[in-house]
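Record minuted for everyone:
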Amino acid sequence: MKLAVVAVVVCAALLVACGRAESLEPGAPASQESASPPPSTAAARADLSGHAGQAASATPTPPAAPITLVAVGDMMFGRSVGQRILSDGPGLVFHDELAAMLRAASIAVGNLECSVSERGEPQAKGYTFRAPLLSAESLKLAGFDVVSLANNHSLDYGPTALADTRAALAEHGIQPVGGGKDIAEARSPAFLDRGGVRIAFVGLVDAPAEGDFSRAAWEAQPDRPGVAWADRETVASAVREAVRSADVVVALLHFGIEYQTRPSVSQRELAHAAIDAGATIVLGSHPHVLQEVEEYGSGLIAYSLGNFVFDGFDGAANVSAVLRMVLTSSGVSSWELVPVLIGADGLPRLLAP
C-alpha cells in the first residue's frame, strides 16, 4: 500500500492533517491473564485453610518507552546564521519549543549542508558554505545524534574542512555519515542502540553536477576524501551491509531536483531500491522544498524534508516540517509531520497548532 502526502505551500498547517498517523503512542499491550486464581477457587481455598487468604497478584511489567526518531532537512549554519552564532551564541538557532521537541526524541537526525571549519579554500561553485566551529555545539544543544555529510556542500572548502567538520561533530558526540577521509569512512554506517533496538544510518548523494561538484571529483576513493555516491547498486549495497548489523536501517539520500515539489523518477528508483534492500526509512534532502511522504512496501520514504536551517530563501522553501516517527524492531509504527516555518533570519520555528 502506498500513501502520499503532498506539501501544500499556501497552508503549512495542512501538513499535519495530511501526514499524521492516528497516534504517536503505541497500541496498548495485549492483556495478560491474571496470576490470581478465579474467585471461586480462591474462596474454596480460604474455606479449607480456615482463613481468607489473599489471591496472589502478578506485578505488571511496564510497557517499554517508545523509540521516537525525529528527522529534518537541510541545515546550513554559514552566512548570516553563522554570524549570529558567533555574536549571540550557539543556543539561538533552535527556539525553545522546537529545541525541546528535538531533545525529547530518542534520536534526532538531519542533513548538514555546509563545512564546519575555519580552514580551506572555496571551491569553484555557485554557492559555497562554511560555518563556524560553534555550529556543532548548536546541533548538540538541540539533541542531534546523526547528521549526513553526503551532499553537494560538505567539500565546499576542500578535504581539510571536511576533516574539521567530522572532528567538530565527534567532539560533541554527533555521528557523521556519508563523507570521510576515504571510501570506507564515507560509506561506514552510524549505529545507535535505543530500547533494545539497534538502528543503523547510511548517507549517500546523487545530485546534479555544478562547478567543481561532480561524482568524478567528489566521490570518495580508497585513497581520497569525499562523499558516498548514490546509484541503485551502491544504495542497495550500503543498506544490505547495514542490515547485517542492525534491526532498523535509515538511509539518508541527498537527491532530486531543486525546488521541485514532486519526486523525480530517479528519486523514486533510488528510494525504492533502498527499501527493497531492507531499509526501514528513507530520508531525502536537496530540493529545498517539501515533497511527499510515501509508505512503500514495509518502509517509509520522505522524498524531501526541505530546508530546516537556511537563510536566503522565501516562499515554499521556508515552509518545512519535522518528521516524527515511532520505531520498533519491526519498523515504523506511526509517524506525523510537525509543521515548521523558517523566518527571514533562516531559523526554524514551530507553527502554532
The radius of gyration is 23 Å.
